[in-house]
UniProtKB/TrEMBL annotation, chains A, B:
Protein name (database record): CRP-like cAMP-binding protein
Domain of life: Bacteria
SUPFAM superfamilies for the chain: cAMP-binding domain-like
Naturally occurring in which organism (per UniProt): Pedobacter cryoconitis
Domain Cyclic nucleotide-binding positions: 34-120
Length: 195, 195
DNA sequence: ACAATAAGTTGACCTAAGTCAAATGTACTT
DNA sequence: AAGTACATTTGACTTAGGTCAACTTATTGT
């Protein structure tokens, strides 16, 4: 299956609508394949996030670096997710985030201006956008609640049950940062949970 | 200014589009004014959030209650905000949240099915929805970052600079819970910051 | 295959924030 | 206006999780 077929399937499945041949040609004309090797940056702090990427293969982390050089992972992204700092992408302001490939990464990328065109002309695309933003609203609300009202251990258990594959796929220090923990603390939690 | 005029102004301003007379009639036919007194619930845990409300006057808090009876404020909402548990509202599942009026509250409310109609027939309404979900994505991302990488004191300073009116308007224990702090800790932070 | 670099573990210690309890202050209700 | 129910403050104490450092185990690049 080609990269574009992955994208088409995704749009059709999420939106519940079919893409016409014209729709597909429009998408193929304006999404550009891009490959990044592990450790390469999709976005660097201070730059404007000019592209949004649809992940066909691989994974990435979105993180900030605070004054003390402490890295803070906000998001982990895998296949069939969109990759961008949406604040920077929508508002065209410099980003406070870095987005780095955790594994070799293949994306299909496009610009803000192009996305506006897709939304105007492709019904399945705008239906998709609505559903994604609903899902996003829901997911972030859950994560907020978890951050505030769960203990470190509960957040880890929660991750295990919701995204078990994350644990296999990402290094433990990345998972720790994603959970808002130091690597040492996560190491200890794991040790205890084997009893 | 009538309640509906507040809503019309809001939609037009956010969307950057004008509402036709027909649009306005459609909205007036399907948004129902509703008043709640302070302490009354807009939504109770376990119920499906059947209505979305546009706040014309007053304020509300969205919170959960954990096993220990500990309340956890996730959102504070004031005039010109939408009030709902979007997860429950979109998916029609029972809500894990409570929404309670903090001050006497006037909303214009409508149902999921009606909102779908508005989105279909009123261009300004769907433009508004897109912009709101963009803003929402951005705001939640910021709040997530604050929750993970700021200290209690920094989160309080942040609130002061972003929403100074919240401090005047809401009781301190509500603010504390919103910041993910015990009331005692917030009291101490405030004491220290007067030096 | 072998340094070299990074990731994970473990122990000792520290600190921010939570908990409990008592005292004071404020605001609804009748 | 008095009385009851909340809010806030303060102090004493506890605890979850962070920090620093030493060590072990994996990855990575040449």
């Amino acid at each position: 299956m080609s990269n574009f077929e992955v994208l088409f399937d995704y749009i059709q499945e999420i939106s519940g609508k079919l893409l016409s041949e014209d729709d597909k040609h429009l998408l193929m004309a304006h999404f550009k394949p891009k490959k990044l090797r592990k450790r390469q940056y999709f976005l660097q702090e201070g730059d404007v996030c000019k592209y949004i990427g649809f992940i066909v293969k691989g994974s990435a982390r979105t993180f900030t670096v605070d004054e003390k050089g402490h890295e803070n992972v906000l998001k982990l992204s895998v296949e069939n997710w969109w990759l961008a700092d949406f604040e920077s992408f929508y508002l065209l302001t410099p980003s406070r985030f870095n987005i780095e490939a955790l594994e070799d990464l293949e994306v299909l990328q496009s610009t803000n201006a192009q996305i506006e065109e897709f939304l105007k002309h492709i019904p399945a695309f705008s239906a998709m956008q609505n559903i994604i933003s609903q899902n996003n609203t829901i997911a972030t609300q859950k994560r907020m609640q978890a951050a505030f009202s769960y203990t470190a251990e509960e957040r880890y258990e929660d991750l295990i049950s919701n995204y078990p594959h994350f644990l296999k796929r990402f290094p433990q220090n990345v998972i720790a940062s994603y959970l808002g923990l130091s690597p040492e603390t996560l190491s200890r939690i794991r040790k205890n949970s084997f009893k």
